[in-house]
Design brief:
- This protein has a domain at 72-233: 3-Layer(aba) Sandwich (Rossmann fold).
- Strand 2 (96-102), helix 5 and strand 3 form a beta-alpha-beta unit.
- 42% of the residues are buried.
- The chain has 236 residues and is an alpha/beta fold.
- Strands 1, 2, 3, 4, 5, 6, 7 and 8 form an eight-stranded mixed β-sheet that branches.
- The chain is 38% helix and 23% strand.
């Protein structure tokens, strides 16, 4: 495990995964690390409280996405919680504008405080995805939607894809328990005009992980996403 208070140690660990970490980015992540720990006393923004684990399980995990993201554009983090992966991505890819979405207002208040303190190219919104996805301010406005452990595959696909522009990408971050048969990404993708790519498996400090990428090929039918109760009752 790394010592998070030493820049050279963190830079070396990130470098093992092909990720360049500058000293400025390191300092901003250090500030965010402390804000996460402090905020966790008030609300559950992270179950990970040890700094070294925060750097591996949150920051490095988020940074692994950089190779799949455009240099510029609009990214939406669905179910952002305490800002993972959005805030590390905003720190490390400042030309990319990032919107953080969560239904819990207190978490969005925290994310907004981080954005303002760090001067990030980002914004944070409280709302329910199945409602905002029908709002023209948000519908089909994003180049990338990312989500980490927010929902199972078919539900996440229905909630996320309407936010994407045509040719945009949904990136779902899954752990070692990922099962394509129960997640049902492919069936939902077919209905919503997307192409489901082969899962990308990788190991992060010995922990197996997967990225599921869906490419949006056509505009989303107007009836999607459905009301949340119907999504739960009759998954795609």
């Amino acid at each position: 495990m790394i010592e998070p208070r030493q820049y050279e140690s963190c830079r070396s660990v990130f470098g093992e995964y092909g990720i360049a970490l500058t000293e400025e980015q390191y300092q901003k992540l250090r500030i965010y690390e402390q804000m996460l720990v402090d905020e966790s006393i008030r609300q559950n923004v992270t179950a990970v409280r040890e700094p070294a684990e925060i750097w591996i399980r949150h920051f490095l995990d988020a940074a692994y996405l950089l190779r799949f993201l455009p240099e510029q554009g609009e990214l939406l983090d669905m179910g952002t919680g305490g800002g993972i992966p959005a805030i590390p991505l905003a720190i490390m890819r400042p030309e990319l504008h990032i919107t953080m979405l969560d239904s819990e207002h207190n978490k969005i208040v925290f994310c907004t405080a981080v954005i303002e303190r760090q001067g990030l190219n980002a914004s944070a919104v409280t709302g329910r995805a199945e409602e905002l996805a029908h709002d023209p301010v948000y519908r089909e406005q994003y180049d990338v939607v990312v989500s980490r452990a927010m929902a199972n595959g078919s539900m996440l696909t229905e909630l996320s894809v309407p936010f994407l522009k045509v040719n945009g990408t949904l990136i779902s971050m899954k752990g070692k328990q990922y099962d394509p048969e129960t997640e049902r990404f492919a069936s939902a993708a077919d209905i919503l005009g997307c192409r489901c790519e082969e899962p990308i498996g990788y190991s992060l400090y010995g922990e197996q992980k997967y990225l599921i990428l869906l490419r949006k090929c056509t505009a989303t039918p107007a009836q999607y996403p459905r009301r949340f109760a119907k999504i739960k009752r009759s998954p795609l």
